Amino acid sequence: MASGGLQLLGFVMAFLGWVGIIISTAMPQWKMASYAGDNIVTAQALYEGLWMSCAMQSTGQIQCKVYDSLLKLESTLQATRALMVASILLGLVGVFVAVTGMKCMKCMEDDQVKKMRMAVFGGVIFIISGLAALVATSWYGNRVARAFYDPFTPVNTRFEFGSALFIGWAASSLAILGGSFLCCSCPRRETSYPPTRGYPKNASSTGKDYV
User: Where this protein primarily resides, as one coarse class (predicted)?
Assistant: First the structure.
């Protein structure tokens, strides 16, 4: 029962992490304009994401523009996109595989060993998915931080971490932790020892002496 509870907890955490990765990928707030300068302009807030850039006016109106050409984007942004999309696809595969191996599901009940392996394999897929998202968000955040502290970057073009990055870091951590729980939820097999063989009994004496 404890193993089943750990398995269910791991799946819920990994699934929530996967949903968070999807939300982070779709959000435009991967980086936001910084106002840490003398000439502060608060009439609008500028955001940039993986797919579009947005400007929010002081009145609350938001205007977004999708990036025109994929070939004009920076290679690092394209790589970040690829990693996040791969993370989402891996998470989708992990959901189906882990659900098949869950103890509360009736699939593959006749073979508990394969069912147990499916749960572990689903956990491994979730871990890889979380690592891909963690690498993408950390790489993007490192670029934002380096550009912010670069003395050659104009003050009015500096950006800070957006909320999508924090959601991505939390979601990838959940996916990795949940996948680890799935991998550890399977009970250990008890070591089976071969049956002990008794010592051969001495043949009963028949009372006859052999020369």
Answer: other
Report the length, in residues, of the chain.
211
Q: Which of 110, 131, 130, 107 is nearest to 119 (CA)?
A: 107
Torsion-angle region of residue 74: left (phi > 0), alpha (psi -120 to 50) or beta? beta
Q: Mean pLDDT of all residues in the chain?
A: 81
Residue 36: pLDDT above 80?
no
Predicted confidence (pLDDT) at residue 190 exceeds the cutoff of 50: no
The pTM of this model reads: 0.80
- In the chain, the domains with their CATH numbers are 4-27+70-184 (1.20.140.150)
